[in-house]
Amino acid sequence: MEYFAQQLINGVTLGSIYGLIAIGYTMVYGIVGMINFAHGDVFMVGGFLALIAWLALTAMGVTAVPVALALVLVLAMAFTALYGWTVERLAYRPLRGSFRLAPLISAIGMSILLQNAVQVAQGPRVKPLPPVVPGNFFQSEGAGGFVVAISNVQVIIVATTLVLMVAFSLLVAKTPLGRAQRACEQDRKMASLLGIDVDRTISLTFVMGAALASVAGLMYLLYYGVVDFYIGFVAGVKAFTAAVLGGIGSLPGAMIGGLLIGLIETFWSAYFSAEYKDVAAFSILIVVLIFMPSGLLGRPEVEKV
Amino acid sequence: MSALLSIKGVTAYYGAIAALKGVDVDVAEGEIVTLIGANGAGKSTLMMTIFGQPRARDGLITFDGHDITRTPTHEIARLKIAQSPEGRRIFGRMTVVENLQMGAAVTKFAHYDEDLARIFAIFPRLKERAGQRGGTLSGGEQQMLAIGRALMSRPRLLMLDEPSLGLAPLIAKQIFSVVEELNRTERLTVFLVEQNAYHALRLAHRGYVMVNGRITMSGGGRELLERPEVRAAYLEGGR
After folding, report:
1. Which residue ranges run through the membrane (chain B) (predicted)?
2. What's domain B30-52+72-235's architecture?
3. Which residue ranges form the domains of chain A, and what is each CATH number?
4. What is the C-alpha to C-alpha distance for residues A80 and A227, in angstroms, rounded to an integer?
5. CA dihedral sign of residues B52, B55, B61, B67
6. ipTM of the complex model
7. Cβ-based neighbours of B136, under 8 Å, separated by 6 or more
8. pTM to 2 decimals?
9. Smallest Cβ distance to A303: which of B77, B105, B135?
């Protein structure tokens, strides 16, 4: 029982990170109808930027952990958002209106470019970060001597994710910007007839997706204590799986899909085999694509006219 | 009388196919002007070309003296030209109120509450449906919503593309009378595209007839109604 509880906690933590990345996939898909394969690498860049910001702040003498963390969060979000904006501007906007595969190919190119750029600039080796937030928020020893613990880092990850997801859902549901995004999703031409700057709205969607991915990057860094140039690939594909599982284009779907993938992967590792956890996650992708192509919360492409 | 909207020698193409072959149309402030013509004559293309979708290849389009021939679509809309387009193009997964809010975007919501109340007074049906998704409305309700959405921007020029299409005659009549009343009481300028030539010409101050991407006739609404060519082609046997 304690073992199960511990896996549940770990799975929710991991799922939060996947969910944050998955939102970027799902929003971009919703608005421009393409899978942004460079998104996983934007997450990786976010992780590196968080690490750099952290080291810079400590070098400048900011030692109070909560203050430093908050600053790192803001800095990483801002700079990664700039990356997201640039990627859209350079790789996707010039291809808008071209054939459907073109932006997909340039997305894969962007992904390779970002990986290699970081590899060259930061080196291929794993970059460690000493534990920043030590200690447990809660722990209890069970009957068999097994300790169930929720670490402070896990609390930070889940709480930040919850806050961001709520804020983000409100933004999309209630603000003029969110409405403009949904309008562009449904009928770009009509949106422009109503005075919506479609290019700007799409740019902002990439910016938001990248900002959330950078938070995921920071959380990853805090949780695992390392980043390298390659983490974007696997995390990206898993988050993409999460977005498809939840129903691509659906925000709550991305969050739920992220949680499910995190839980499945964790429980699979805990009870079966850690080597095959990726197999488990990707088998889900295959099963979903075959039996439920529109995902858990996705909508079938039928509209009353 | 200087025109609010002036279209001079405009051509537009879909690929290699010419949809507009040199069109001249003027709409003065406070007028209702209608454009009639058969299916495929290029009426809707002209409506969209005013917004630059597709762009005019040759010719000049001015609004209130500004050249808008090459202006980005969203900036044209911000000059307070509103369109209820062909096919209505309601946002099906947004509620009625959200659709109306989209219309108010160009006003920066400066007089949103007042405008919303006004639209609900004009179309009480929309008030009953306020929280419902656009895609679940009937055709007539969607048409009301499309016009309401256009009016939310407080347009200086209201463009309506086939507002009576597919509607029960009674509802079509109701929509025409709303247009007439807005024109009479608020001097709203209206540019109306219609296949329903009889109603459109009776309503309009002036009319244009379009055939195959060209304007072939123009004149006062009633005057066009009396013309034998118009009667033969669009009113009696022609439909």
Report:
1. none
2. 3-Layer(aba) Sandwich (3.40)
3. 2-291 (1.10.3470)
4. 15
5. positive
6. 0.93
7. A304
8. 0.91
9. B135
